[in-house]
Batch of 3 targets.
Target 1
Amino acid sequence: MALSARVLHSTDFFAEVTGIAFHELNPAIAKRIIEFNDRYAVLVFRETGLDDDGHVAMSRLLGPLETAPALFANNEENRRRLKLPELFEAGNLDADGNIQALDDRFRLFARGNRLWHTDSSFYQQRSKYSLLLAYIVPPGGADTEFADMRAAYDALPQAMKRRIEDLVCEHDVWYSRELAGFPDAQSEERNRRPPAQHRLVQVHPGSRRKTLLLASHASHLVGWPIDEGRALLRELMEFATQARFVHRHSWRAGDLVMWDNRCTMHRATPFNDLAFRRDMRRTTVIEDAA
Ligand code: OGA
Ligand code: MN
């Protein structure tokens, strides 16, 4: 079966791709997947049949993978459900496979996923692709929303494009945790994950289109008074997440969604996470060294 893409959003963004035999992937197919992703920025593949090993192996064809970091100073809190270090926990299950408790620190840390963000922008070496595979979808769906940052950039008024062209932004994971109400990062935890700086306007490598690099992690503009930088970032975030740039994905178990963090933002939507299981696992492909 030939690979084909069906676009699901009006900005030529977010496509469902069919025709991939996930059990016999090779570099040539990976190249086709990247070409589709360069164009549409987010792809959904249904019923891939992938398990953990297949998910990691498939992701590896797209580039080197990030391994999930030890987030907490207390090692007991770093215990993991997922055995492969390349898999990030994106559901609401604890190390023993039970629903995370109300005060589970990982649960509180992951609350930040409900804010618009891009994965890993708080690292100097960012990640390009994230691949999120759904195993258990709770009642209500727990949809994920995606925003098209190339379309948002294109739609900015000329005066704004000129104003932001050379700005540099600092991204700090602890800033987004603070916004999301994570209570008590310890100094050791903070020191392990220092902030990074990136240009606000970027050229997306795969399409040569300009794009905005925004995220809940974006704490301030370098060289600007903190409050003025935050006000401009807030204005851009509001602009870039208008309904016309946003696609909402309703998960089915077995869906694999792949997105390019360099030209999109995403956020989780609320569900009753203390009552229902959600099993989601993610790999993350690191950007090529500059
Ligand atoms: C992620 C993420 C959103 C969701 O895995 O990076 O932000 O809906 N997930 O789980
Ligand atoms: Mn994310």
Target 2
Amino acid sequence: MSKTKSAFFCQNCGYESTKWVGKCPSCEQWNTFVEEVIVKGNDKSPKDDWKDFHGAGSTLKTVSINDVSSAEEKRILTNDAELNRVLGGGIVLGSIVLVAGEPGIGKSTLFLQNGLMLKDVVTLYISGEESEQQIKMRADRVGMMNENFYLLTETNTQTIFKEIKKLKPQLVIVDSIQTLQSPFVESSPGSISQIRECAAEMQRYAKETGTPVFLIGHITKDGNIAGPKILEHMVDTVLQFEGDRHYAYRILRTLKNRFGSTSELGIYEMTGEGMRPVNNPSEILITQKEDQLSGIAIAATIEGMRPLLIETQALVTQSVYGTPQRTVSGFDLRRLQLLLAVLEKRGGFHFGVKDVFINIAGGIKVEDPSIDLAIVCALLSSYEDVSLPQFICFAGEVGLSGEIRAVNRIEQRIAEAEKLGFEKIIVSKYNAKSLGKLKFNIDVVALGKVEEVYKYLF
Ligand code: TYD
Ligand code: MG
């Protein structure tokens, strides 16, 4: 019997509806519903398989939790320490990992390179985007060869599984999930129902055979195009690749991990020969110059589990137009507006008639609120056009009343600053209490308010 079934899907969040609606009830976006055919009219659709599970002959599958062995999950250790770290200590067998990132950021390069480095693991790299020649050219570029590394340029999931049965790989990389196509679903590749079905098939394969699967997925700049987002709950681990294409540095961040911490982070540098893991990121993120310039302050942040010293840059100029401009790169615009309001109200600085630009060096996006104090000092430095003393760095969150709030893991930040040869670090006085009698070779200055910092510096 031939019957087709269709449904409407929100292209933004994946919400499913039986009829077309103008506004998505889930994500409240307008005009995002598209009709997709979900079941092809043949009786062998995978949905029918489920009937077997409820059939009379099926045996009990329920087990008592006491009978489940608590063996440590087995992992494949890659040669890339950064990747191992973000995965929580290597690739867990049978896990399914989504790697999301903007096009051109280096997802294919990183996973091709890691596959090639795993000499003892039979790896299958499925590409629906590039030809074998293109991949080979890229492999030549990263300068690695591996006889255990297999390529498959195919998008049909059933053909892929046939190949997988023959090859029996120990690791599968799918580049990208948006190009896969399941014959059981009729809508076009990249549509919500296709992505969902293909990922489900891959997940079943991973769980049943214990083979780890990496799914590479594209997202757009705002990070919320349908596709990969709807997979987040299905997969075990979500890694996000971030960074500005125009800069060399890339951050691989763990957004979800069933096998490890979600506050991990790996840093890479895109070079002519592929991605290079960066082991001591602080050193390259600070452009230490002989002569200090105004508007530059160094923040001692913690990204993931790692301390990271980052250069923040501010430019404050007289406004030419009626409405002053606020432009940020790598920093939250609203946060900047908040900090400017605090400086205006508590410090009496007239930022209202100034254009303000903020930039975080290296094209890195920082989420740690402890960067506030450095931003404030960079702003003041540019405002006064006086450079800050050399070898000084900052770690503190700024509150609405201009108070400098304590930040977490202050010892680690101080230790990193000390390691990099800084002479002074300005922290919150509330942090100083917890430091107690700890001794550092760096001068730790504990202050309570933004005004005190200003007095101290200028
Ligand atoms: P790619 O891995 O194709 O990105 P994605 O799969 O996320 O879309 O990388 C794209 C960019 O990386 C491309 O502009 C070329 C650049 N690149 C290098 O700079 N060095 C290299 O060794 C390689 C292979 C690529
Ligand atoms: Mg790619």
Target 3
Amino acid sequence: MEKNFPLRELNTFGFDVKAKYFQELKSMDDIHQLVDNPEIKRSQVLILSGGSNILFSNEFYDGFVVYPNLKGIETLEESDKAVLIRCYCGEVWKDFVDYTVSKNLYGLENLADIPGKVGAAPVQNIGAYGAEVKDTVYQVHTIDLTTGKIKIFSNEECRFSYRNSIFKQYKSFIIFAVDFILNKNGELKLDYGNIRNYLSNNNITNPTLKDVASTVKTIRAEKLPEVGVVGSVGSFFQNAIVSEDKYLEIKKLYPEVPSYPADNSFIKIPSGWLIDKAGWKGYRENHVGVWDKQALVLVHYGGGNPQEILDLMGKIQNSVKEQFGIEIKPEVNII
Ligand code: EPU
């Protein structure tokens, strides 16, 4: 256990945050020992993974940061059609995706290059370019830090939905491994956004799994700031889910508004579009701003503090509310 531990390298916003207590966990033994540590029972606990979806609102975290970092990838079962793979929480997500693509396994190719680690992927049901991790998760292995009990969640028990799962509530549960079912032959998902355009512009008429993964990487690199170079957490806000009436009201004023169907006849409007339309794209104030290629992304240019991002967040929310009557919610986990 370390004290007053610097987290600057462990949050992709790159803020100079310190934690009162910090412990990295590299094995199941480490986890069991931590359960018996009296300090963990007394403290407020935060389970941190890649730090790519977190905003510390304060520069001192007055609690215990737990950093599970178990490594390993194992093939558990294999049939003619599919493979069951266990991946431990500390593996880097994008490397895991590259590994599955190199083995010609279908399912994760549209999720290429998402920052973060495998253990965090189920928490917010990461998604991009027409895929969500929930479509490949078989089960999730957890241990509850408060009791030391292991619990395995089936896909259904994870209660996945858009950028959400049961693990957002179960804050004392460490996800130490995730089992995925990946197919040996699958259908490629090419319908989201520009994927087909990119492929045809590059004269790829019969795309392979690798073509899709590399197309997704190219599109991401064009739209999103590079992790480790510019501080960000990818999408800062969730997309807005509105009633059909609200959508029609907006469409009357802005016929070009993009939209996607959401559950229960609600409609999803990209918050990036709302923020862009409200004039924020490329806005900069001191050390923080709105990314000029994707308005859903707030960035920290260095030397700033979390309050600057929170202030900017509030201004954007107010402005979108005023112009469209929609309350956009953060997607990032604010601590
Ligand atoms: N748009 C604008 N202006 C902008 C940004 C977007 O007009 O500044 C419009 C686009 O033209 C498009 C629509 O909004 O019509 C959607 O944009 P995009 O395809 O870039 O996706 P998004 O809805 O803004 C979501 C995810 C991203 C994911 C992309 C691609 C959320 C909160 N975000 O963004 O996820 O990469 O789709 O699938 O659902 C993340 O979670 O960190 C993340 C980056």
